[in-house]
Specification:
The complex is a heterodimer of chains A (321) and B (399).
Chain A lengths: L4 H19 L1 H4 L12 E6 L8 H9 L26 E6 L5 E2 L5 E7 L8 H5 L5 E3 L6 E3 L9 H5 L6 E2 L8 E2 L15 H4 L6 E5 H13 L5 E5 L8 E5 L18 E4 L17 H12 L4 H17 L7
Parallel strand pairs in A: 1-12, 3-4
Antiparallel strand pairs in A: 1-9, 2-4, 5-6, 7-8, 10-11
Chain B lengths: L4 H9 L4 H14 L6 H10 L5 E6 L5 H7 L6 H8 L1 E5 L7 H14 L5 E5 L2 E2 L8 E2 L2 E2 H8 L5 E5 H6 L12 E2 L1 H4 L6 E4 L6 H14 L12 H4 L3 H4 L3 H5 L10 H4 L18 H4 L10 H4 L55 E2 L10 H38 L1
Parallel strand pairs in B: 1-2, 1-3, 3-7, 7-9
Antiparallel strand pairs in B: 4-8, 5-6
Helix pairs in contact in B: 1-3, 2-3, 3-10, 4-10
Classes of the chains: A alpha+beta (321), B alpha/beta (399).
């Protein structure tokens, strides 16, 4: 194909128009961060209070009708090694060296619960092409609609916490993840893991209240006796315990745009397998880009116009049927 | 036939058969975790009638420790011990009383200096010169300090004697302390805490001292390791429910009736070292111990737990070491979870699960076979290619 000088200029002019139209709106259209829902519900998990009894794992399976998970087929008991389509919630163990002192980074150990973090601005719902994963507008729980799901598993790739799991062993597979026991709410129930936690390591409640509670715990003096609510943040049932050392960081307060499951621990969170995320959510960043590209449909019109023009110019009569 | 020493026992006692006697000695050996043959050695030591006398001093106590000893029902234990050991002084059990009893004690101590076993039960009040507990007009503190240096071994029975028990609980108006503290920590003594302690822990300790003429292996709190090595939590029959997260939430609820874990009701099993679940009480069969009957352990044998922590308060799990760890067992260091770590459901998932599970031998064989076939086929094809080329080449030359 011979490209004349005239055509070359035409092409470069249209190219710069395309670039100009795509580049200019980007800074202007950076999306506002998604705010926390005022009625958003969540979980506060405190690893320093957790005793690793796995009551939350047992009741999670019971209330979500999940079968036992065997990572070693010779084990007859439920022994998941990670979250899976049969395990929405798992208590993991961090150990270092002799591993004798609880909640200590060197030569210590710490428990950590892993479950869906119910992000304020979830990547999975943003990546989902069909809204099979969506956020409940009131509680903010990230829910799954199996009738809408295509099975594309974009959510698995999008989730920074590696939470959505696909049923590889089923003929009609679904995505499986914690849905904050939303099916129990109509009957007056709430997250079973919190209801059955014996020590108050996991408590359920309004995220704003949970954030206040987390800040209160961080402000407590180590060694003093303090009240820790059991089951729910607004419950009158409290347990007294001696405050142990905290790492001054509320995981989920800002991570990835904030999450509705908040975590406290003494061992740094990246050691506990939680990713260090920027305060801006991934969904916010990608959506900013996409919204810019498709703003007013200018970019698609210009791009396809240019492509159409090129094809038209380079098609001779001989090529036509 | 030469008469064995153990055959002499019934003659001396008049009521124990040789069979019962040997049975008792074997049970005692098993209780201490000694090899089976040790039963015979214990029998020999017990049958030898040159018994060290026992002086039993009581401080601030409730006589519960004496009662528990009297309630032991292994074959005629009370007869064996109370008759074989020359119990020269015991305020509850002595036939004489008043000045006669005091005289008997003074005589026995003078005669058996350095040879008798001193047993103490009850705490010792220290405040105001120890006037809050007096025997024969003298503070028990004074009597103890006078008697202890002359004894072969000192055994503190019960929580009061071992670490202060109820009398030392806040506000402790009499300044009650344990035997060891009253003696200023100068003597190596054996603590048998419990409220009351299991009589067999006491009897086994006495038999051990008699048989080997030395103290049994003690832990950092002076308790014999054969009895106080493990957490109650590790031997508890409700342990599986703890691991599975099934808890009784209130007394008499469904979980409680079904025998679920009592942790949420304030069971102190996870921080109390004792052998209650294995040894049981009263010789009436399974479940005859507090948590077995549905009552949470309140940590009677553990200093700083029993009579100190509120009963509904949940136990700390500082001794609990999580699964999946192999710890070096050092001398005085408690490795509370050593047994727990072997219980499968307590295994925890690691933070980063390993990806994949390695390859099996069959898979390796199959892959190697396929690779071999591929290599062989490749070689054959390559050889053929060469031939064809050379054949074509030859033809061209001909043409």
């Amino acid at each position: 194909m011979g490209l004349s000088r005239r055509d070359f200029f035409k092409l470069s002019a249209s190219g710069s128009l395309v670039l100009a139209s795509s580049a200019s709106p980007v800074p202007a259209a950076a999306l506002e961060p998604v705010p926390r829902l005022p009625e958003g519900m969540g979980i506060l998990y405190d690893a320093t209070v957790c005793i690793g009894c796995k009551a939350c794992m047992a009741v999670c399976k019971e209330y979500n009708y999940l079968p036992p998970d065997h990572h070693d087929p010779s084990n007859v008991w439920d022994d998941p090694e990670d979250l899976s389509s049969k395990t929405y919630n798992i208590v993991k163990l961090y150990t270092n060296g002799a591993g004798q002192v609880k909640d200590q980074e060197a030569n210590g150990y710490s428990y950590i619960r892993r479950l869906c973090m119910h992000c304020v601005d979830p990547s999975c719902t943003s990546a989902c092409p069909v809204d099979a994963l969506h956020k409940n507008p009131h509680t903010g729980a990230v829910l799954y609609d199996k009738d809408a799901c295509l099975g594309c598993r974009y959510c698995q790739i999008a989730c920074p916490y590696n939470v959505p799991k696909f049923e590889w062993d089923k003929p009609f597979p679904q995505i499986r993840k914690c849905q904050l026991c939303s099916h129990l709410i109509p009957q007056g129930g709430y997250a079973a893991c919190c209801e059955f936690c014996p020590t108050g390591a996991s408590i359920y409640g309004n995220v704003q209240d949970l954030l206040k509670e987390a800040k209160r715990r961080l402000s407590l003096t180590t060694g003093q006796m303090a009240d820790y609510p059991l089951r729910r943040i607004d419950s009158s049932d409290k347990t007294q315990r001696k405050v142990t050392l905290y790492n001054n960081h509320i995981y989920g307060a800002r991570e990835g745009g904030g999450t509705q499951v908040l975590m406290l621990a003494n061992v740094p969170f990246n050691k506990l397998g939680l990713p260090l995320l920027p305060a801006e959510s991934t969904a916010d960043r990608t959506e900013t880009l996409y919204h810019a590209l498709y703003k007013g449909m200018i970019f698609p019109y210009v791009l396809f116009g240019a492509v159409f023009y090129l094809i038209y110019k380079n098609t001779s009569n001989q090529d036509l049927p | 036939m030469k008469e064995r020493e153990s055959d002499l026992v019934p003659r001396h006692l008049g009521m124990v058969s040789r069979r019962d006697f040997l049975k008792f000695c074997s049970v005692a050996a098993a209780g201490m975790g000694l090899p089976l043959g040790m039963g015979a050695k214990i029998a020999e030591a017990v049958a030898n009638l040159k018994r060290p006398p026992v002086i039993w001093l009581s401080g601030q106590e409730c006589t519960g420790c004496t009662e528990t000893l009297l309630r032991s029902t292994h074959p005629t234990v009370e007869h064996l011990i109370l008759n074989l050991i020359s119990l020269d002084y015991h305020e509850t059990l002595s036939t004489p009383s008043g000045h006669l009893a005091e005289e008997a004690k003074a005589k026995s101590i003078a005669e058996n200096k350095g040879k008798f076993i001193l047993v103490t039960d009850g705490a010792i009040p220290m405040k105001d010169g120890g006037v809050y507990c007096q025997v024969g007009g003298r503070p028990v503190l004074e009597i103890l300090r006078e008697t202890a240096p002359q004894a072969m071994a000192v055994i503190a029975i019960g929580s009061c004697a071992s670490w202060g028990g109820i009398p030392s609980a806040s506000p402790n108006p009499t300044g009650a302390v344990s035997t060891s503290e009253a003696l200023g920590g100068k003597f190596t003594l054996i603590n048998i805490p419990g409220c009351p302690p299991n009589p067999y822990n006491f009897l086994s300790t006495v038999l051990y001292v008699l048989t080997f003429n030395k103290l049994p292996e003690l832990d950092d709190k002076g308790r014999p390791k054969f009895a106080y090595r493990r957490l109650i939590h590790e031997g508890c029959e409700r342990r599986a429910h703890f691991d599975a997260g099934r808890f009784a939430l209130s007394f008499g609820d469904d979980g409680h009736r079904r025998g679920w874990c009592l942790y949420k009701l304030g069971c102190k099993g996870p921080e109390t070292f004792n052998n209650c679940p294995e040894q049981l009480f009263g010789d009436v069969g399974p479940r005859s111990w507090p948590a077995g009957t549905g009552c949470p352990c309140f940590g009677c044998s553990e200093k700083g737990v029993g009579f100190t922590k509120p009963i509904p308060e949940q136990a700390s799990l500082e001794h609990y070491t999580p699964a999946g760890l192999l710890l070096e067992h050092e001398g005085g260091v408690r490795v509370g979870g050593a047994q727990m770590r072997q219980t499968p459901p307590t295994a925890f998932a690691p933070i980063e699960p390993p990806e994949g599970h390695g390859v099996t031998t069959a898979a390796v064989g199959l892959a190697a076979g396929l690779a071999g076939v591929a290599v062989g086929a490749g070689a054959v094809i390559a050889m053929k290619l060469g031939k064809e080329k050379s054949e074509t080449g030859a033809n061209t030359e001909k043409d």
